[in-house]
Amino acid sequence: MKPLFPSPVAEWHNETYAAIDPTRPELSMAGKTVVITGGGTGIGRETVRAYALAGATPIHILGRTQATLAETKKIVESDVPGVNVVLHIADVTDQKAVRKAAQEVGKWDVLISNAGYLAKRSPIKDLDVDEWWLGFEINIKGSVIVANAFLPNRNPNASLVAVSSAVITLPVKVVEGTSSYVTSKLATIKLFEFVAAEYPDVQVVTVHPGVVDTVLNSKSEFEGLPMDDVKLPAHFMLWAASPEAAFAAGRFIWCNWDVSQLKAIEKKFQEDELFLTTGMLGWPFP
Q1: What are the contacts of 194-201 at 24+ separation with CB within 8 A?
Q2: N or C: which end of the chain has fewer CB within 10 A?
């Protein structure tokens, strides 16, 4: 279908499709060790399934709640015989717990930084400052803690896929009341641009996961947006960690964008170092 928002490609997806199918041989993760934060529910759970279908094992999942992680393990191991899903009870804001998980995991090949938080929608004059700041604690501090703990133990040719949100591109008047989420997600993109620069041997890609019917999305109170199937971001995050997406390292890309058409404009990524990165609109000035 045609793009619903400004897009660098002409084809837009709301559902998964052949080029990002986890069973494609080119996307095989056989023999790979994968780590996924926020793996207990929603997009995180479906991403665990995607990597399992692609042959990855073991898949280590981090989250705060034993019950939801255990449910993910039960579902995925039942659906994909032979996969081993390993649980780590760890809040991403708890540096000690995350470091313990990183030690237990050891060497890894793919890291998905998926844990996130959306504060209750509220204008600044009425907000609960502690809850507002929790968005930064989880989305930014949590991302830093995860990167700091896991990157030293990476295998050669490792990939890191981080989740942000395309809401950062919208005018403030459209997203009033979501200052915690929008500003922390904008900072998330810039943070992983630093990670990409400081770890050039790691394929770091930041992803917009679409608009999916999850508990987190329901808190946004946005209405009228077309919904995406949960398999779309899950399968896209598999593709983003594959060699096919190497040209997008250090950039922010949307799961709705057709990957074949993205690959067709690889030259744009090579020639414009600011393309799909964060900065000030209008700079450099004419």
Answers
A1: 195/147, 195/151, 195/160, 195/162, 196/249, 196/250, 197/250, 199/151, 199/160, 201/156, 201/157, 201/158
A2: C
Mean pLDDT, rounded, for 19-32: 98
Contact 135, 186 (CB under 8 A): no
Residue 162 phi/psi, 5° resolution?
-110, 150
Helix (H, G, I), strand (E, B) or coil at 262: helix
Burial environment of residue 133 by CB neighbours within 10 A (0 to 12, 13 to 18, 19 or more):
middle
**Nearest partner of 26 among 255, 237, 250, 243, judged by Cα:** 243
Tell me which DSSP letter residue 233 carries.
H
* Cα 231-45-167 angle, rounded to 5 deg: 65
Supply the pLDDT for residue 194: 98
The percent of residues above 90 in pLDDT, for the chain, comes to 88
Instruction: Give the pair of three-digit tokens for residue 164.
Output: 């942000």
Give DSSP secondary structure letters for 33-56: -EEEETTTSHHHHHHHHHHHHTT-
pLDDT digits (tens, 9 = 90+) for 32-85: 999 999 999 999 999 999 999 999 999 999 999 999 999 999 999 999 999 999
**Can you tell me the distance from the alpha carbon of 3 to that of 6, in angstroms, rounded to the nearest whole number?**
7
3-state helix, strand, coil in the chain (%, to 5): 45, 15, 40
Q: How many helices (H) and strands (E) does the chain have?
A: 10, 7
Give the model confidence (pLDDT) of 167-197 as tens digits. 999 999 989 999 999 999 999 999 999 999 9
